[in-house]
Design a protein that fits this description.
The structure holds two protein chains of two kinds.
Chain A lengths: L11 E7 L5 H10 L11 E8 L2 E8 L9 H5 L4 E7 L3 H11 L11 E7 L6 H4 L48 H15 L9 H4 E3 L8 H21 L9 H6 L9
Parallel strand pairs in A: 1-3, 1-4, 4-5, 5-6
Antiparallel strand pairs in A: 2-3
Chain B lengths: L10 H4 L3 E7 L4 E4 L8 H16 L6 E4 L2 E8 L2 E7 L5 H19 L1 H10 L6 H4 L3 H13 L1 H5 L9 H13 L5 E8 L2 E8 L10 H13 L7 E6 L10 E7 L7 E7 L5 H17 L2 H7 L13 E8 L24 H18 L8 E5 L4 E6 L3 E7 L5 H22 L6 E2 L18 H7 L4
Parallel strand pairs in B: 7-15
Antiparallel strand pairs in B: 1-2, 1-5, 3-4, 4-5, 6-7, 6-10, 8-9, 9-10, 11-14, 12-13, 13-14
Helix pairs in contact in B: 3-6, 6-9, 8-10
The chains are: A alpha/beta, B alpha+beta.
Chain lengths: 261, 455
């Protein structure tokens, strides 16, 4: 494809996945535009090119609606990082990641990294309510204690904690703890056939963010950009290969090889 | 602002001018224009009961007339659409509007997959697949109420000097990639130009309704203005069972008034199609097209130079020739006294009334001169055109006829600016024999969209 050579070449590909209304578009908007605004439900997928230092990072913001489910694997093809997003105040949004979205990542790179991102932290965590541009590491967060006990035992499909899902979104309480997310991260690694020891640790790959206040958002994207740097360098070094998305190569790639970190 | 949260037991809910409901044959709510579907499930149950009761007598329920309300039913496959209107619109017009709603749903899911879903599971909750699309349907219904394009089943294009339009069309014509079938440029929600793949439109034309649905989709999802969108979309009148893949991108962020829409039959073509956009962008930059487009506006009726004429809508019937024309119409801005929303709606209602008389199934008319309370209207249909005019109330019949002669002469003189005269074409299929009707080869793809896996 000679045409593609003219395009400002993306060096690496990131994909945002997750159920509808968890805030994927808002997260990206917060990071790129430094703003939070009302968005409408995404149609299909939206492609963004982000300049990061000397590199061009392409980010696919996908629709969470089931209507567009079939396209997910196409957006994920050749991805170096997948951001699996859920809503901390909605248990189902975490469960959906495992049920609906995980299989879409089969087309991602074999050394693709996975981040679990609990958005809307401002609804449950007082620290996330302060308008800030992220700094605190996400490790030492405290939880709303009440739900902790119930969610410590984790099966493949745990039952939601006591507080009911508020459909109208009036009083969302915290439904997903960081431990839930980390447990899911472990299951993702197992699904991918990756060794926990040789993969990135869960504490490093699970984030809680607020697109509304900006809490932890920069942290998330920049941490991921740092982590995909090896992919970028490899792509740019592989002289012949088009760094965009090499459809053929990725299609042939087998998953199951442990990541090299 | 959401109509979703409305109290469906309140009087204000009952007083809406036009309700639209969509339900499945099993009586499951799918969509309501006002109020939440859950709250209305029993109401929709009653609607379905009516439909099936009449059906059991080997009959079809079409409409119910009551004091001040018209209830219209439309059954399309496994979906039932119901309109409850207190407007003076006719059953035929309301049914036409329901059909647009149906088509918009098809544009998102395709007819084939809807049938398949309900074949597998009769009481499937289609809202699962339409979740998030309510705004698109809401937007459509608002447009149907306020934009005469839907009534006339014709597209209004942006008035533009034909030299500029041709230049832009040529830019689009040159930026092609295999499997690209339509290149459409939109400015301020009006069609600027459309370039079509030769073989694809040989045996099928692009219908105005498909363009309306596309325009509505873009209007309703304008939130991501910086990104480039890639999404499946079905053009129901072109082919109700297949998807095209649409690339949507604004050329003038952050203003976002000029939108490029490229339709491909290849799901994987995003990067190639995005490259077409970059070519188009470059060429338009070189020719300074964007700033020229930015200056373009709709026109005023005063340009016609007929004193008593307040407003008009003119729809020419296309001439049978080798060009597949897109049905278009032209109309000036609505100006005083039709500046307020209420007055605009009142004028549109008058037009709808005239339209219903002209297109009456029992007694169609060719010419109507209608003296209303605050204006006088004249509608005229010939083999060449359909025309609706609105005059000040003091106009005489003779004056109106002279005015129309002048108006027709003015339109003739301006037609290169007011209409896309010959939609340009390109050829992107190396092997044209196979790919007519666009997405046919894509048919299996709808299964690929994950619907079957849900069942």
């Amino acid at each position: 494809m000679p045409e593609v050579s003219k395009m400002k070449k993306p060096d690496v590909k990131l994909v945002l996945l997750g159920d509808m209304n968890v805030g994927k578009t808002s997260l990206l908007h917060r990071y790129t535009e430094r703003k939070f605004k009302d968005t409408v439900s995404t149609v299909g997928g939206a492609f963004f090119l982000k300049q990061w230092g000397p590199y061009n990072i392409s980010i696919w913001d996908t629709a969470g609606r089931e209507q567009f489910h079939g396209l997910g694997s196409m957006y994920c093809r050749g991805a170096a990082a997948v951001i699996l997003t859920y809503d901390v105040s909605n248990w189902q949004s975490l469960a959906e990641l495992e049920e609906r979205f995980l299989s879409l990542t089969d087309t991602a790179n074999h050394d693709c990294i996975y981040a679990l991102v609990g958005n809307k932290a401002d609804l449950t965590d007082p620290r996330a309510q302060l308008c800030q541009d992220s700094d605190e590491a996400s490790k030492d967060r405290m939880d709303c204690g009440e739900e902790r006990t119930e969610t410590q035992v984790l099966s493949a499909c745990p039952t939601p904690p006591a507080s009911p899902v508020s459909l109208s979104g009036i009083t969302p309480g915290k439904q997903v703890t960081p431990e839930d997310a980390m447990a899911l991260y472990g299951r993702i690694l197992r699904y991918k056939g990756l060794e926990e020891k040789s993969s990135l640790p869960a504490e490093k790959m699970c984030f809680e963010t607020s697109a509304k206040t900006g809490y932890n958002v920069d942290n998330l994207f920049e941490a991921l950009f740092d982590l995909v740097l090896p992919s970028i360098l490899r792509n740019t070094n592989e002289n012949q290969h088009s760094p965009t998305v090499d459809l053929e190569e990725c299609r042939g790639a087998k998953r199951g090889r442990p990541g090299c970190c | 602002m959401s109509h979703r949260d409305e109290d469906v037991t309140a009087d204000s809910w009952r007083q809406h001018r036009k309700h639209v409901f969509v339900l499945s044959e099993a009586g499951k709510p799918i969509y309501s224009r006002y109020g939440s579907e859950e709250a209305l499930s029993s109401t929709m149950g009653v609607m379905m009961a009516l439909v099936s009761f009449v059906q059991s007598g080997d009959n079809i329920i079409r409409s119910i007339y009551s004091d001040g309300h018209t209830v219209v039913f439309l059954q399309k496959g496994p979906l039932v659409l119901v309109c409850v209107s207190s407007s003076r619109q006719t059953e035929k017009q309301l049914r036409g509007e329901l059909l647009y709603v149906y088509y918009q749903i098809i544009s998102m899911l395709t007819q084939a997959s809807i049938s398949r879903i309900f074949e597998h599971k009769k009481n499937y909750d289609l809202r699962r697949l339409l979740a998030g699309s309510e705004k698109i349907l809401d937007g459509l219904l608002n447009l149907v109420d306020s934009d005469p394009s839907f009534l006339l089943v014709a597209v209004q294009c942006l008035p533009l000097a034909s030299s500029l339009r041709d230049n832009i069309s040529q830019i689009l014509q040159k930026a092609i990639t295999p499997n690209l079938v339509f290149s459409i440029l939109i400015a301020n929600n009006q069609l600027l130009t459309i370039v079509q793949e030769k073989t694809v439109i040989e045996d099928s034309r692009l219908e105005p309704a498909d363009i309306h649905l596309l325009l509505n989709l873009i209007g309703a999802s304008s939130a991501f203005q910086a990104g480039e969108i890639w999404t499946p979309i079905c053009l129901p009148l072109f082919n109700p069972d297949c998807y095209f893949y649409a690339y949507i991108s604004y050329l003038d962020p952050p203003e976002c008034t000029v939108c490029l829409l490229l339709l491909s039959t290849d799901k994987e073509a995003f990067y190639a199609v995005a490259e077409c956009k970059r070519k188009i962008e470059e060429a338009m930059m070189a020719q300074n097209s964007l700033s020229l487009i930015a200056k373009v506006q709709s026109y005023s009726v005063s340009q016609v130079g007929v004193s008593d004429l307040r407003h008009f809508m003119y729809k020419p019937f296309d001439v049978p020739d080798t060009y597949q024309q897109l049905t278009q119409f032209t109309s000036p801005e609505m100006e005083a006294p039709y500046s307020s929303e209420e007055e605009k709606m009142r004028l549109l209602d008058l037009y709808r009334y005239m339209h219903s008389r002209i297109h009456s199934t029992s007694r169609p008319l060719k010419l109507i001169y209608h003296v209303a309370e605050r204006e006088t209207l004249l509608a005229w249909v010939t083999s060449k055109f359909e025309l609706y005019t609105c005059f000040s109330p003091l106009v005489t019949k003779a004056c109106a006829i002279t005015a129309i002669t002048k108006l027709l002469r003015w339109i003739k003189k301006e037609e290169d600016r007011l209409f896309i005269r010959y939609p340009p074409k390109y050829s992107t299929t190396p092997n044209p024999s196979k790919s007519s009707r666009g997405g046919k080869s894509d048919q299996q793809d709808s299964t690929d969209n994950g619907f079957l896996s849900l069942l």
